[in-house]
Amino acid sequence: MSPESPAAPAPSTIGPELTAADPVRMSVIGLGRLGRLHAENVAGRVPGARLVRVVDAVEDVARAQGERLGVPWSTDPADALGDDVEAVVIVAPTPLHPELIAQAAAAGKAIMCEKPIASDLTAGRRAADAAEAAGVLLQIGFHRRFDPAWAHARERVRVGELGEVQLFRSQLWDQRAPAASFLADSGGLYLDVTVHDLDCARWMVGEVEEVTAHGAVLVDQEIAAVGDLEIGVVTLKFASGALGIIDNGRSAVYGYQASGEVLGTQGAVRIGDDHRIHDLQWRTPEGARTDWQGDFQTRFAPAYVAELEAFARAVRGGPATGATGADALAAQRLAAACERSRAERRTVVVAELDDDGA
Q1: CA Rg, the chain, in Å?
Q2: C or N: which end of the chain has fewer Cβ atoms within 10 Å?
Q3: Whole-structure pTM value
Q4: Mean pLDDT to the nearest integer, 337-345
């Protein structure tokens, strides 16, 4: 047993006596930057949830976060699946996702797992199948689905306000590249970054049939050293005949950027960058200046809370509104098609990945 904080786990009260009004008892596995945010949200920002344990492979990290949030901590993922836990939030490195999903499913826990579901399609399918076979809820952390701007735009697109969709366009750029140690296990630019845009493309417009991808490293050779890309451009052909354009980058320098646009026969909708920290513009003799946001946690803070709220409602029997295991596999398949397209310098029909067992 890994060390735990002195506070003993609460006795199990999981059972039929729980009602929809009772907070869902959640544990969080993985306490990196995003894991800490999820733990903080569960602990204090999501009324429908209660944090009961945190887990991280690094003992100092687990202890520090457990003590800070006032909950038991551990270095052993098995401790996140105790009788006092109803649901687990998985924010561990991507290669660990499939096994953690399988363990949580076998323990009968509802699961929210950060994207991507796995490092490769085969492992991703196994993970999704494990949750389905166990009959447990599996929600994947595509947070844009819970961002008010993206969700509102999607609803209006899907009810036909733009007429026939002709073009989908999106951008996602970090202000600065993550550490090389993160990139080495991230799955690469398409699976780590572009996968958000690919999920949005399916969610907003429909299924994608073909992709063409290009990528490059122009400045930061540390990114090349771990086999990743610095920038990428992807074009899409949807089953409807509509087209799509996605561009991504590891380092925008000036700030974090996540924007989108859908053009149709009757109009267009633009989801803005939301770069500004405050709704202010400073004007001086030297020119105008706005303060831009530096990371996804700031830009999408409300969305991260909303997705956990939706997860908790679904655990209590409400509708499952987040991305499913099937959604995660579809986005991962598109990311794999992008990688094949770049490597082979050709357009890839997405169905190829099913035909060859990829």
Answers
A1: 21
A2: N
A3: 0.90
A4: 97
Q: Using the 8-state DSSP alphabet, how is residue 200 labeled?
A: H
Element housing 82 (H / E): none
Summarize pLDDT for 274-300 with one digit per residue, the tens.
656 556 677 778 878 777 777 888 889
Tell me the three state secondary structure of residue 150: helix
Please tell me the total count of domains within the chain.
Answer: 2
**Using N-to-C axis directions, what is the helix angle for 325-344 and 121-134, rounded to 10°?**
170
Burial of 345 (0-12, 13-18, 19+ CB in 10 A): exposed
| Average pLDDT of the segment spanning 46-73 | 97
pLDDT at 28: 98
- Whose CA is closest to 262, among 180, 179, 153? 153
**204 vs 226: CA distance, rounded Å:** 33
- In whole angstroms, what is the distance from residue 74 CA to residue 100 CA? 15
Dihedral in degrees, nearest 10, Cα atoms 144, 149, 154, 159: 160
Q: Which residue has the higher pLDDT, 19 or 174?
A: 174
Q: Do 140 and 176 fall into the same domain?
A: no
Residues 191 and 68 in one domain: no
Domain extent for 181: 148-299+324-355
User: Do 253 and 231 touch, CB atoms closer than 8 A?
Assistant: no
Q: What is the CATH number of the domain that holds 63?
A: 3.40.50.720
Write out pLDDT tens, residues 218-247.
999 999 999 999 999 999 999 999 999 999
In a domain, 268, yes or no: yes
